[in-house]
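Lecture 7 notes: from sequence to structure.

We start with a single chain of 250 residues. Read the sequence below before looking at the structure.
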Amino acid sequence: MTTTTKPTRVENPSKPPKPVKEPKPTATQKGLVKVGAIPRADLLPPEIRAAYRGKAVVRMLIILVITVAVVVAGGVGYASIRSITSQAVLQLERDRSADLQARQLDFAEARQIANQVDEAIEARKIATAAEIDWKAYLDEVSGTLPEGVSLRTLAIAPIDQEAGASGGEPANPLQQESVAAITITAFSATVPDVESWFDDLEGITGFAGIAPPATVTEEGEGDAAGYTVSLELLVNEEAYLLRFQDEEGE
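Now the structure, written as tokens:
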């Protein structure tokens, strides 16, 4: 097979290069309007463009109203739940109170008995508030008698404190406050030591004084002669037993 080799073209270096052609001007550059181009003029009326903007504002207002409605609905729902919960708690407490009242009826009789016991205790305190153990008290008085002196008579009389306070002056302004008086008559074959006896009487419980006058009179003749001592012993509140008054503090 025979291969044909084309001869290599050798440019003449002395020949100048061809000039570069400039691009032809376009129709726009020539001042001509190209038919079919995108129009640039705004032909929409202002009312239509304002309507478009108004629609955007309306959409924002609708979104805002929906948001507010959701928040309000949430608040109302929360308040309703709280109200229902409170009503349930209130009803529970009412049921509990009714149950307690029903249970209290079971103990009504016991409470009535307890009240009667309290009333009896209070009545006993009032009834024994001015109680004096006269046997023990007179034994204490007898223990102060001087040697050779014996008791003949004893008379106990209560003193009404309210009578003096409500109606007029007391019978003896010098008489000390007292709740009872013991009229004592004693006999002695010899002259009794009255001053020593009075000193011993001051040491007994509830001693309020000796009401004047205290007298010593001579009586009888011969072997029957002797001396009679008469006095009125005053007793104050310290002689009260108060047996049941201390139960309140126990």
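The chain is about 40% helix and 15% strand. Keep this in mind for problem set 3.
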